[in-house]
Amino acid sequence: MTSISILDQSPIDHNEAVSDGIKRTVELAQLAENLNYTRYFVAEHHNIQEVVGTSPEILVTHLLNQTSRINIGSGGVMLQHYSPFKVIEQFHFMSQIAPGRVDLGIGKAPGGFPLATQALQEDIKSSPTSFNDKFHLLNQFNNGNFPKENPYSNLKTTIRNKEVEKPHVFLLGGSERSARFAAEEKVGFIYAYFLNSDNELLQKAIRTYKAFYPEGRIIVALAAVVSNSEAEYALIEEGRTNYVLHFDDGQKLTVSSEHQIDDFKKQSSRTFEIEAQQIEVFNGTAESIKQQIHELNIDDEVDEFMFHMPVQNHSLRLKTVEQLARVYKKSTLKAGVK
Q1: How far apart are CA 62 and CA 169, in angstroms?
Q2: Whole-structure pTM value
Q3: Where are the beta strands (DSSP E) in the chain?
Q4: DSSP state at residue 67
Q5: Under DSSP, is residue 227 helix (H, G, I), strand (E, B) or coil?
Q6: pLDDT band at 108, cuts 50/70/90?
């Protein structure tokens, strides 16, 4: 049976303050804890006006201090911008504040557009380390499993004698290749179904991950909003369209609005083709959403579903968290699994 969790991008409307988004994130996290969700993840985005979560490590720490039982984590830290050792130092320190409750989700995307990426990487060398190499290094720092002859084997963080549990590491991705890499690194894998709603690719990623790491934890992050009226359904439709920018070199970038495309054009001279995509948003009653989601787990290999709610309306987000918890009763969750 499958656990449930929340992914929160901390959205705000155009006339709201950043503090509004932070307060609502705290409120949702506390509600999720009271309703026995497994974990609560917050995102990293830069210079995007609709969301406020620029620093997941700070927001995670704040949420740890505002909750007492639920696992809190990043969904995710965008590793291309940072030193792997510094990221592990931060999350090991958090683990001292809330032992056993800290999750570290790592993403490959920039989390923003060229201007923010330039500012974040101002001092990074001209030939940056590949993402896979940075992730492997981060995983080694987290596990402390360098060979003795490696100078890094002498580095210590605030988890020095295994006195607290180290963070649970997850790789965020949307491909079979990412799933295999996560399995090879022996970390959890979060498939971003809300960005790539391809059922065949999802099943391939799940099978590949479980084939290489059968005891690993696979989470499917999907968009879900409980809706009981035409007005609520209209709000869902507003957030259903994503735009994929296809560049000449084969790279892709997904954005969520036309004005984000305009922002990208102002910050970059790169040419691209635009593909509009209707993302899968599971909606309707909580019972019908549960049934729709169940069909994704045909082989019962998904360990956890993580709900992303792509609507600006806070009341609708609260209702979704409450009603989905009601249909996924505590008795159906995997007891003791983190």
Answers
A1: 19
A2: 0.86
A3: 3-8, 39-42, 71-78, 102-107, 168-173, 188-192, 218-226, 241-247, 252-255, 272-278, 281-284, 304-308
A4: -
A5: coil
A6: confident
